[in-house]
Amino acid sequence: MSEWALFPLRLFVGVTFVYAGLQKLANPAFTNPASSVSIQHQMAFAVTTSPLGGLLAHLVGGARVIGIVLAFGELFVGLGTVLGLWTRVAALGGLVISLSLFLTVSFHATPYFTGSDIVFLFAWIPLVIAGGGSRLSVDAKLARLAARQQGAPPPTLVPIAFATVQSVCGHYEDGRCRALGAPCGPPRCPVLAGERPSLYDRRHLDVVDRRTLIASASSVVGGVAGALALGAIAAEGGRVLSSGSGGGRTLSPTPAGPTTTSSAPTTSTSASAAPATTSTAPSATTSHPAGTLLGNARQVPTNQAASFTIPASGDPGIVVHTKQGDLVAYDAVCPHLGCTVGYSPSMQLIVCPCHGSEFELLTGDVIAGPAPHGLTKLDLVEEGNGNLYLQ
């Protein structure tokens, strides 16, 4: 029964990492520098908040490669953990990923337990120490198969209750065996000494271990190939499904220029047939709203979003064109840990990609944590020709 103890934990962290890796690979915005939810934006923000900021500053240029490696790393770790294939190695990889995310993304979570990465960090430790057990495990199945082919007993751990040991070889007390009147130890104990039928026969142990290693290594190679194929399918599917979604749109100032109105030349002729004179009405310049020109509303289709940079603070901003035709803009920095939020057209909510906080579209109010409060709303003015100005 104790062999099942770690299985729920193994299943949870494994499935979570598989989902996290596929989600990143299926989201084209994750590696698109123009997107407000990209790995580039997240790393740039982490430079100012992480204890590893000095190192991250040199790695931002390679953010796309880092994002792809991170996504496939999560996928490999998750699949290995779920399948029970090289479980300790997979768990060690998961621990390293969780530690990296804790030190970069969620280091300043307050209170500390609101950041999920520290929880995953400690969740991996039992699997690193004890492995994943032999239940529903590819490693265990391959070991049993290798033992059967070699004619060795199955590598099954057979527990012996301490009461049984006492009944066979006497009671243990203060380091001595009362039955023998001597210190306890394998040479004198009939349970600990001699042949142990629950363990491998020593004559076959090396052969069985070698066969198991070769079989598991072959399985790992096949698993890596399968994970790469699965990741490629997810990436292509995400690209197709997100085409036209506008996840990487960025507002760019494209002013239409001053609007001038001029009258057509007018000609007046005097009754005395004097030479005709032509007069042109002076041109009139249309005034623009105060503020910074961000771009034009045509750059943001209905139920889509676009990003921009807030001049006053340098923070990323997001403008959303709602289904009802309204245009709303917010500071896109999540108040939880500073990740850059994005818009979900299917949910019609603004969502933080790091820890799942959700914000109401028209007001920016938080409707699902862990963000402690809503987004900062920005004043946006639309000119008659569609140009958008940030007040």
Main attributes of the structure:
alpha+beta, Rieske Iron-sulfur Protein, 391 residues, 3 domains, four-stranded antiparallel sheet
Could you please describe the fold and organization of this structure?
By secondary structure, the chain is α+β, with helices and mostly antiparallel strands. It folds into three domains: 1-152 and 204-242, no CATH class; 159-197, no CATH class; 292-390, Rieske [2Fe-2S] iron-sulphur domain (Rieske Iron-sulfur Protein), CATH 2.102.10.10. Helices cover 39% and strands 15% of the residues. The chain contains nine helices and 18 strands. It has helices at residues 7-25, 39-49, 53-59, 63-83, 87-104, 116-130, 138-150, 162-169, 202-242, and strands at 172-173, 176-177, 182-183, 260-261, 266-268, 277-279, 284-285, 292-296, 304-309, 316-321, 327-331, 342-344, 349-351, 358-359, 366-368, 377-378, 380-382, 387-390. It has a four-stranded antiparallel β-sheet with strand order 9-10-11-16, with no helix packed on it. Strands 12-13-14-15 form a four-stranded antiparallel β-sheet, with no helix packed on it. Helix 1 packs antiparallel against helix 4 (63-83) and helix 5 (87-104) packs antiparallel against helix 6. The chain is elongated, with a radius of gyration of 33 Å. Residues 194-204 and 255-284 have low confidence and may be disordered.
